[in-house]
Write a structure and sequence with these properties.
Oligomer: single chain
Strand content: 25-35%
Helix content: 25-40%
Structural class: alpha/beta
CATH architecture: 3-Layer(aba) Sandwich
CATH topology: Rossmann fold
Amino acid sequence: MKRWPLLFVWLLASVLAPRFASGADHLTALNPKIRVLVVTGGHPFEHGPFFKLFADNPDITFKAVEHPHAQAMFRPQAAKQYDVLVLYDMYQEISDQGKADFINLLKAGKGLVVLHHAIASYQDWPEYQKIIGARYYLQPTVVDGVEKARSAYREGMHFRIHIVDPRNPITRGMHDFEMHDECYRLFDLADGVHPLLTTDEPLSNKVIAWWKTYAAARVVYIQSGHDHFAYDNPNYQRLLRQAIRWVARRE
Protein backbone atom coordinates (compact mmCIF):
# COMPACT_ATOMS: atom_id res chain seq x y z
CA MET A 1 0.00 0.00 0.00
CA LYS A 2 2.83 2.43 0.75
CA ARG A 3 4.13 2.03 -2.77
CA TRP A 4 0.98 3.52 -4.37
CA PRO A 5 1.77 7.18 -3.64
CA LEU A 6 5.25 6.76 -5.11
CA LEU A 7 3.85 4.97 -8.14
CA PHE A 8 1.28 7.73 -8.61
CA VAL A 9 3.97 10.44 -8.47
CA TRP A 10 6.09 8.55 -11.00
CA LEU A 11 3.15 8.14 -13.39
CA LEU A 12 2.17 11.80 -13.04
CA ALA A 13 5.74 12.94 -13.69
CA SER A 14 6.05 10.71 -16.74
CA VAL A 15 2.91 12.27 -18.22
CA LEU A 16 3.60 15.92 -17.39
CA ALA A 17 7.35 16.11 -17.96
CA PRO A 18 7.11 16.10 -21.77
CA ARG A 19 4.47 18.81 -21.57
CA PHE A 20 6.65 21.01 -19.36
CA ALA A 21 9.61 20.43 -21.68
CA SER A 22 7.46 21.31 -24.67
CA GLY A 23 6.32 24.47 -22.88
CA ALA A 24 9.91 25.49 -22.14
CA ASP A 25 10.85 24.96 -25.77
CA HIS A 26 7.87 27.07 -26.77
CA LEU A 27 8.97 29.90 -24.48
CA THR A 28 12.48 29.74 -25.92
CA ALA A 29 11.08 29.93 -29.43
CA LEU A 30 9.01 32.96 -28.48
CA ASN A 31 11.99 34.80 -27.02
CA PRO A 32 15.13 33.95 -29.02
CA LYS A 33 18.30 35.91 -28.70
CA ILE A 34 18.46 39.24 -30.51
CA ARG A 35 20.47 38.97 -33.71
CA VAL A 36 22.85 41.92 -34.04
CA LEU A 37 24.93 43.07 -37.00
CA VAL A 38 27.93 45.19 -35.93
CA VAL A 39 29.31 47.46 -38.67
CA THR A 40 32.88 48.82 -38.48
CA GLY A 41 35.37 50.43 -40.83
CA GLY A 42 36.83 53.84 -41.56
CA HIS A 43 38.15 54.45 -38.03
CA PRO A 44 40.64 52.50 -35.89
CA PHE A 45 39.56 50.90 -32.63
CA GLU A 46 40.58 48.23 -30.11
CA HIS A 47 39.07 45.15 -31.70
CA GLY A 48 39.33 42.63 -28.86
CA PRO A 49 37.88 44.75 -26.04
CA PHE A 50 35.20 46.20 -28.31
CA PHE A 51 33.85 42.90 -29.59
CA LYS A 52 33.97 41.51 -26.05
CA LEU A 53 31.08 43.91 -25.33
CA PHE A 54 28.94 41.83 -27.66
CA ALA A 55 30.39 38.41 -26.88
CA ASP A 56 29.61 38.95 -23.18
CA ASN A 57 26.05 40.14 -23.81
CA PRO A 58 23.75 37.21 -22.95
CA ASP A 59 20.80 38.75 -24.80
CA ILE A 60 22.31 38.55 -28.27
CA THR A 61 24.13 36.72 -30.97
CA PHE A 62 26.17 38.92 -33.28
CA LYS A 63 27.97 39.07 -36.57
CA ALA A 64 30.61 41.67 -37.48
CA VAL A 65 31.09 43.17 -40.93
CA GLU A 66 33.58 45.80 -42.05
CA HIS A 67 33.44 48.30 -44.89
CA PRO A 68 33.56 48.11 -47.86
CA HIS A 69 31.53 44.91 -47.40
CA ALA A 70 28.97 46.24 -44.94
CA GLN A 71 26.50 47.71 -47.40
CA ALA A 72 25.91 44.31 -48.99
CA MET A 73 24.36 43.39 -45.63
CA PHE A 74 21.75 46.13 -46.09
CA ARG A 75 20.23 44.24 -49.03
CA PRO A 76 16.76 42.80 -48.28
CA GLN A 77 17.80 39.14 -48.34
CA ALA A 78 20.86 39.72 -46.14
CA ALA A 79 18.84 41.85 -43.73
CA LYS A 80 16.75 38.82 -42.79
CA GLN A 81 19.78 37.61 -40.80
CA TYR A 82 19.59 40.26 -38.07
CA ASP A 83 17.17 42.28 -35.92
CA VAL A 84 19.39 45.19 -34.87
CA LEU A 85 22.07 47.16 -36.66
CA VAL A 86 24.90 48.61 -34.52
CA LEU A 87 27.04 51.20 -36.32
CA TYR A 88 30.60 51.74 -35.10
CA ASP A 89 31.98 52.88 -38.43
CA MET A 90 33.05 56.22 -39.85
CA TYR A 91 32.58 55.66 -43.55
CA GLN A 92 31.66 58.09 -46.31
CA GLU A 93 30.96 56.22 -49.53
CA ILE A 94 27.44 54.96 -50.05
CA SER A 95 25.67 54.29 -53.33
CA ASP A 96 22.10 55.25 -54.14
CA GLN A 97 21.23 51.57 -53.80
CA GLY A 98 22.93 51.47 -50.40
CA LYS A 99 20.94 54.49 -49.26
CA ALA A 100 17.66 52.95 -50.39
CA ASP A 101 18.48 49.63 -48.73
CA PHE A 102 19.43 51.34 -45.47
CA ILE A 103 16.19 53.32 -45.37
CA ASN A 104 14.18 50.22 -46.20
CA LEU A 105 15.73 48.47 -43.20
CA LEU A 106 14.36 51.19 -40.97
CA LYS A 107 10.97 51.16 -42.68
CA ALA A 108 10.84 47.46 -41.91
CA GLY A 109 11.41 48.24 -38.22
CA LYS A 110 15.00 47.07 -37.77
CA GLY A 111 16.49 48.62 -34.64
CA LEU A 112 19.47 50.98 -34.96
CA VAL A 113 22.14 51.78 -32.36
CA VAL A 114 24.78 54.33 -33.39
CA LEU A 115 27.99 54.50 -31.36
CA HIS A 116 30.64 57.16 -30.95
CA HIS A 117 32.44 58.07 -34.21
CA ALA A 118 29.61 56.72 -36.40
CA ILE A 119 28.04 60.15 -35.87
CA ALA A 120 30.48 61.38 -38.54
CA SER A 121 29.64 58.88 -41.27
CA TYR A 122 28.10 59.80 -44.65
CA GLN A 123 28.82 63.52 -44.48
CA ASP A 124 27.30 64.10 -47.91
CA TRP A 125 24.06 62.26 -47.19
CA PRO A 126 21.67 64.60 -45.34
CA GLU A 127 19.15 61.81 -44.71
CA TYR A 128 21.67 59.96 -42.53
CA GLN A 129 21.82 62.99 -40.25
CA LYS A 130 18.03 62.96 -40.03
CA ILE A 131 18.11 59.25 -39.21
CA ILE A 132 20.55 59.55 -36.32
CA GLY A 133 19.38 62.97 -35.12
CA ALA A 134 22.64 64.89 -35.34
CA ARG A 135 25.18 66.37 -37.73
CA TYR A 136 28.91 66.25 -36.99
CA TYR A 137 31.08 68.46 -39.20
CA LEU A 138 34.41 67.08 -40.38
CA GLN A 139 35.16 70.43 -41.99
CA PRO A 140 33.75 73.97 -41.81
CA THR A 141 30.39 74.01 -43.59
CA VAL A 142 27.72 76.53 -44.53
CA VAL A 143 24.22 75.31 -43.66
CA ASP A 144 21.26 77.42 -44.77
CA GLY A 145 23.54 80.44 -44.97
CA VAL A 146 25.01 79.85 -41.50
CA GLU A 147 28.72 79.10 -41.16
CA LYS A 148 29.37 76.00 -39.07
CA ALA A 149 32.78 75.43 -37.54
CA ARG A 150 34.43 72.05 -37.72
CA SER A 151 33.22 69.87 -34.87
CA ALA A 152 35.79 69.22 -32.14
CA TYR A 153 36.89 66.21 -30.12
CA ARG A 154 39.11 65.71 -27.09
CA GLU A 155 40.51 62.34 -26.07
CA GLY A 156 41.37 61.19 -22.57
CA MET A 157 38.71 63.16 -20.75
CA HIS A 158 37.38 62.17 -17.33
CA PHE A 159 33.91 63.55 -16.73
CA ARG A 160 30.60 62.91 -15.02
CA ILE A 161 27.53 61.74 -16.90
CA HIS A 162 23.98 62.45 -15.75
CA ILE A 163 20.96 60.21 -16.33
CA VAL A 164 18.10 62.30 -17.70
CA ASP A 165 15.28 59.86 -16.87
CA PRO A 166 16.05 56.74 -14.80
CA ARG A 167 12.60 55.37 -15.68
CA ASN A 168 13.41 55.18 -19.38
CA PRO A 169 13.94 51.52 -20.39
CA ILE A 170 17.32 52.39 -21.93
CA THR A 171 18.66 53.89 -18.69
CA ARG A 172 16.45 52.08 -16.19
CA GLY A 173 18.27 51.16 -13.01
CA MET A 174 21.22 53.41 -13.80
CA HIS A 175 22.60 56.33 -11.78
CA ASP A 176 24.94 59.19 -12.61
CA PHE A 177 28.43 57.85 -13.26
CA GLU A 178 32.01 58.76 -14.16
CA MET A 179 33.48 58.07 -17.57
CA HIS A 180 36.99 58.24 -19.04
CA ASP A 181 36.43 58.76 -22.74
CA GLU A 182 36.56 61.03 -25.77
CA CYS A 183 34.25 64.07 -25.89
CA TYR A 184 32.63 65.68 -28.92
CA ARG A 185 31.35 69.21 -29.26
CA LEU A 186 30.15 71.66 -31.90
CA PHE A 187 27.87 69.14 -33.55
CA ASP A 188 24.24 70.00 -34.21
CA LEU A 189 21.44 68.12 -32.51
CA ALA A 190 18.18 67.77 -34.43
CA ASP A 191 14.79 68.76 -33.12
CA GLY A 192 12.71 65.91 -31.82
CA VAL A 193 15.43 63.85 -30.18
CA HIS A 194 14.90 62.69 -26.61
CA PRO A 195 17.98 63.09 -24.37
CA LEU A 196 19.15 60.11 -22.34
CA LEU A 197 22.50 61.30 -20.98
CA THR A 198 24.00 64.75 -20.40
CA THR A 199 27.27 66.14 -19.08
CA ASP A 200 28.44 69.47 -17.73
CA GLU A 201 31.94 68.98 -19.18
CA PRO A 202 32.61 72.21 -21.16
CA LEU A 203 34.63 70.39 -23.83
CA SER A 204 31.62 68.28 -24.73
CA ASN A 205 28.16 68.93 -26.08
CA LYS A 206 25.71 68.80 -23.20
CA VAL A 207 23.52 66.02 -24.61
CA ILE A 208 25.63 62.94 -25.30
CA ALA A 209 23.04 60.19 -25.80
CA TRP A 210 19.48 60.21 -27.06
CA TRP A 211 16.69 58.17 -28.57
CA LYS A 212 14.39 58.89 -31.48
CA THR A 213 12.40 57.14 -34.15
CA TYR A 214 12.74 57.07 -37.91
CA ALA A 215 10.04 55.47 -40.05
CA ALA A 216 9.18 52.24 -38.18
CA ALA A 217 12.57 52.01 -36.44
CA ARG A 218 13.75 52.88 -32.97
CA VAL A 219 17.11 54.66 -32.97
CA VAL A 220 19.62 55.29 -30.14
CA TYR A 221 22.83 57.31 -30.35
CA ILE A 222 25.53 57.01 -27.64
CA GLN A 223 28.51 59.36 -27.85
CA SER A 224 30.75 57.29 -25.59
CA GLY A 225 32.84 54.36 -26.79
CA HIS A 226 36.34 55.44 -27.82
CA ASP A 227 38.42 52.66 -26.28
CA HIS A 228 38.73 50.08 -23.49
CA PHE A 229 38.18 52.68 -20.77
CA ALA A 230 34.62 52.99 -22.06
CA TYR A 231 34.16 49.34 -23.06
CA ASP A 232 35.18 48.16 -19.58
CA ASN A 233 32.88 50.59 -17.77
CA PRO A 234 29.93 48.59 -16.33
CA ASN A 235 27.63 51.57 -16.88
CA TYR A 236 28.51 51.67 -20.57
CA GLN A 237 28.00 47.93 -20.86
CA ARG A 238 24.56 48.20 -19.28
CA LEU A 239 23.60 51.21 -21.40
CA LEU A 240 24.53 49.42 -24.63
CA ARG A 241 22.79 46.21 -23.58
CA GLN A 242 19.57 48.03 -22.70
CA ALA A 243 19.73 50.18 -25.85
CA ILE A 244 19.93 47.05 -28.00
CA ARG A 245 16.99 45.51 -26.18
CA TRP A 246 14.94 48.70 -26.58
CA VAL A 247 15.51 49.16 -30.31
CA ALA A 248 14.73 45.44 -30.75
CA ARG A 249 11.47 46.02 -28.81
CA ARG A 250 12.50 43.53 -26.14
CA GLU A 251 12.38 45.93 -23.19
